[in-house]
Design brief:
six-stranded mixed beta sheet, 929 residues, 13% strand, alpha/beta
């Protein structure tokens, strides 16, 4: 264009594969002309076709509504309601779109499908006796396939009469009438550039323009992949358009030196961190990222990427998914509340609206609602806290204060759901600060939902809750929030299809796994594979070849290439893409090792962000040291410090706790607390009873009452409803556990003398610069034949190996020895405690765990004693061992008190799995996918 002065640029039309290529052509043209000029008309191929066509392209939802209206009018099978219709309609729309894009004969395809189905049914009939209901079902089944082609015809006719259509129909119509539509075009020169693949409909359009308007075609090919793609993609275009042989085929793979790194790492986040580390290295070397592209094989990876990388100066062509915004979470929560409340009302045959407490509090904790009704002084926050404190599994509408209830859906059997949802969104919009980013996201969806509601109303489709939920969620999944960026400067971030016609010096591809690139089969179809293949529809293999073409073109002129794939099989196949194997094979076969160097590595460690120390460090200042000095150290606190110093700081120094949540089901620690409370009552009563056998029997008879009293005494369960649901089930579990264990108590206490139950233990331990307070509670202390034993009750599982002593170093470093550490800690405190409850002292001491679960299951060795020597079965804890324990305990606490040692998070990922603070800890948040 720059060299052709015979045709002015404004008289030229250029068609390219995508919008990104369009912008790059404008930029390059400006560089070459170096003067003011009128830009040529540059369209993506899709824009060009729709610019020519008189028909409007409808969205997926609009097409579904149009098709549903037609099906109702024709009494089409499988169309009892909109939800049943949706079970097959998306596949049908996808199939006819492909049929039209390929210009295949729809009547022949649907006739073949029907004949195959008839043969299948006839074969089945010959193997089994016919029954009237079965015959009726098969008749309906065949009637569905018989009606597909008439439906296709009627649907296209209905759309065309309304001046609209779906993408494939518009392409087919334009291929048939291009002479009429193109006659009005004002251009003198037509250029089609970068189309290494074209559908039959696109070829028909380009063919007419080539024959009648001398349209020019430019291909970008390389000898490296010539034999793979030339015959498959280029030859059909050449033959159809009667083009001469392509003479200019490049040899960039053979002349441009390339450094290719293949990197296998585990998890999505780690892949992105490796990519970010590479970006920083390129920026340090070049001083900019102007000729660098980051390609996301799976475009869903854009979400973690924008949270990991400062993308201020990056250009992201894909938008931020609306589905990942707080607004989407809030709207999903609104529908979940509605659907589940309606289902519960139906099952209970009740008119009272009951909301799941877990879903309700999740809904109310959404940051948008918190911004409106939840702050530390508002009535709304107080109402939420009050309601949450009651620990209900289900909350009825009358129990919810007005400040909360006004945001909840009004649940009825046949409501106008979409109008109610729109009112909810409008109320949100009016209540949110207009400067808040939430305002823009709510408004983005609201506009489309209002349009949808109008379409449903005009079509007289009942927007029941299931229909409304499906359609709104479909809208949310398709919406994206655009990023701001410069397509000519800085890092470019895009998907594979957007890289067509673009060249970059530095290329980083993330997520290059089999099943991701090339993609797996992505949609359902009503068409059989053999039928599609017979009529020339593109197979999955053909589509994979198209992506291979794009992938190898992306690397064609690149010099520094990093290909990263996932080695973890949890989310994807832990297998590199076949494109990597093909690249390695081609380089070797063509003898290009001197030009293209391929290195491979597998990483198992987490890269550091921006090459800086990303570990959190809390320096122990004066304020923190004062708080530490006031801590009463328990075995749990010390185990917590050994597990993760940062967790100890957050939990015991700053005393951070999670917001109260519905306990569903009961947490193990609460079940354990209830059990301990009941057992304390049993043992104290048993020891004081004159007739112990009668006492056990009486306690057993009234056990249900005792459990209810113990559960109600727990602050978390004070207002819980134990008559139904998972609280009831938890009560039954406790009942069975305690009832069976009561049978073991007489035999236990006949062999030993109980010294005390739930004994509080205290000791002031001298340490560097002063002393600290130690505390604990011994569940049971007994004496048998002169030997004192400190016992701890556990309702969970305990393996004997956890109580095997190996060394003091292991005891103070291995979290698997936490139970043994706790036992020795209690035994140490008992020996040091000077209260009346611990007056009985003896030289021979033991410690062990009463495994209630094993006692209930009939294991006679349910009391497991701690060992005292490595590789020994001896259970006597020596004075020397306790003395060594005290020395190490002092060393541990001095470590906590050392102002020169900051609190840092653990470097062992398995310790973070169930941590309450994982969301605010860099270590755990970066190691998840």
């Amino acid at each position: 264009m720059a060299q052709n002065e015979a045709v002015a640029t404004q008289d030229t039309l250029v068609a390219v594969p995508n919008k990104r290529a369009k912008r790059m052509i404008q930029l390059e043209l400006a560089k070459q002309l170096q003067k003011t000029f009128f830009s040529p008309a540059i369209f993506s191929i899709d824009e060009f076709v729709h610019e020519l066509s008189p028909y409007k392209n409808l969205s997926d939802i609009e097409l579904q509504i149009e098709l549903y209206n037609l099906c109702r009018k024709q009494n089409f099978p499988r169309c009892a309601d909109f939800i049943q219709f949706l079970s097959w309609a998306p596949a049908f729309l996808s199939d006819i779109n492909e049929i039209d894009m390929q210009l295949t004969d729809p009547q022949a395809i649907f006739t073949n499908i029907l004949q195959i189905k008839e043969i299948e049914e006839a074969f089945q009939d010959s193997k089994a006796e016919k029954t009237t209901p079965e015959t009726s079902r098969k008749s309906e089944y065949l009637r569905f396939y018989e009606a597909l082609y008439p439906l296709y015809q009627a649907f296209n006719q209905q759309l065309m009469e309304k001046g609209c259509g779906y993408n494939g129909a518009i392409y087919r119509d334009e291929a048939a009438h291009v002479a009429t539509y193109a006659s009005a075009l004002p251009y003198k020169r037509y250029i089609f550039a970068g189309f290494n693949t074209l559908s039959p409909a696109e070829i028909a359009i380009v063919k007419w323009l080539h024959q009648h308007c001398n349209a020019e075609l430019y291909f970008d090919l390389d000898r490296f992949y010539e034999r793979h793609f030339l015959d498959k993609f280029i030859k059909p275009i050449q033959n159809e358009l009667n083009l001469s042989e392509i003479e200019t085929i490049g040899n960039d793979y053979g002349t441009i030196s390339k450094q290719i790194r293949l990197t296998g790492v585990s998890k999505t986040t780690t892949q992105l961190l490796c990519a970010i580390e590479k970006l920083h290295a390129i920026e340090r070397k070049q001083g900019h990222l102007n000729d660098t592209v980051l390609v996301l094989a799976d475009e869903k990876m854009v979400l973690p990427f924008v949270h990991l990388y400062d993308h201020t100066n990056a250009n992201l062509t894909m938008g931020y998914p609306f589905a990942a915004t707080p607004a989407a979470t809030l709207f999903n929560g609104w529908f979940d509340l509605y659907i589940n409340a309606l289902q519960f009302m139906s099952e209970q045959r009740s008119d009272t609206t009951l909301f799941s407490a877990k879903e309700l509090f999740s809904f109310l904790r959404n940051p948008i609602l918190q911004e409106i009704i939840g702050n530390t002084t508002s009535d709304g926050f107080a109402a939420i806290e009050k309601l949450q404190h009651r620990r209900l599994l289900f909350v009825s509408l009358p129990e919810i204060e007005k400040v909360i209830a006004e945001w909840l859906p009004a649940v009825t059997e046949k409501p106008p759901v979409l109008p109610q949802f729109i009112n909810f969104a409008l109320k949100l919009l009016n209540s949110i600060d207009k400067a808040s980013p939430h305002s823009a996201t709510v408004q983005l969806l609201l506009k489309d939902v209002q349009k949808l509601a109008l379409q449903l109303s005009n079509s007289r489709i009942d927007s029941d809750i299931r229909t409304a939920c499906y359609l709104v969620k479909q809208l949310m999944s398709s919406l994206t929030i655009p990023f701001k960026g410069d397509f000519a400067h800085g890092l470019q971030v895009m998907g594979v299809l957007e890289t067509r016609m673009l060249d970059f010096k530095n290329v980083i591809v993330v997520g290059l796994n089999e099943g991701v690139l090339p993609k797996r089969k992505s949609h359902n179809t009503l068409l059989l594979y053999d039928v599609k293949q017979h009529f020339g529809s593109p197979s999955e293999q053909h589509k994979e070849s198209v992506f291979a073409c794009h992938f190898f073109h992306l690397l064609q002129r690149a010099e520094d290439i990093t290909l990263i794939y996932d080695t973890d099989s949890e989310g994807t196949l832990a297998e590199p893409s076949r494109f990597i194997s093909q690249l390695q094979y081609e380089v070797k076969v063509r003898g290009l090792q001197d030009r293209i160097e391929i290195t491979e590595e597998h990483l198992s460690i987490l890269p550091k962000l921006n090459n800086s120390n990303s570990r959190i460090q809390i320096i122990k200042n004066k304020r923190i040291m004062e708080k530490i000095r006031n801590i009463s150290f328990s075995a749990s606190a010390l185990n917590c410090y050994m597990l993760c110093p940062l967790k100890f700081y957050l939990q015991y120094v700053e005393k951070l706790v999670q917001a109260q949540a519905v306990v569903e089901p009961l947490q193990a620690n609460i079940i354990g607390s209830v059990f301990h409370r009941i057992l304390e009552k049993v043992l104290n009563g048993y020891l004081a009873a004159c007739n112990r056998s009668a006492y056990i029997q009486d306690f057993t008879n009234n056990l249900t009452l005792h459990i209810a009293q113990a559960m109600n005494s727990q602050p978390e369960l004070s207002e819980a409803d134990f008559s139904r649901g998972k609280y009831y089930m938890a009560g039954q579990i406790l009942d069975k556990m305690i009832r069976n264990y009561l049978k073991c108590i007489p035999a236990e206490l006949s062999r030993a003398r109980i010294i005390g139950v739930e004994i509080g233990l205290n000791h002031t331990l001298p340490v560097n610069g002063g002393s600290v307070h130690l505390k604990g509670i011994a569940d049971r202390v007994e004496e048998e034949n002169g030997t004192l034993a400190v016992l701890d009750y556990k309702t969970g599982r305990t393996d004997a190996g956890e109580l095997k002593y190996s060394s003091m170093e292991t005891l103070f470093s291995d979290i698997k020895q936490a139970k043994l550490f706790q036992l020795l800690f209690y035994l140490f405190l008992y020996q040091k405690d000077k209260s009346e409850a611990t007056a009985f002292k003896t030289a021979q001491v033991k410690a062990g765990i009463v495994c209630v679960r094993e006692a209930v299951s009939g294991n006679s060795r349910y009391i497991k004693m701690a060992s005292s020597f490595p590789n020994s079965d001896s259970t006597l804890i020596t004075k020397e061992l306790l003395s060594e324990f005290e020395t190490c305990l002092i060393r541990l606490i001095n470590h906590i008190l050392d102002t020169g040692i900051p609190f840092v998070q653990t470097d062992r990922e398995e310790h973070c799995q169930y941590c309450d603070f994982s969301m605010i800890c860099v270590s755990s948040s970066l190691s998840t996918s």
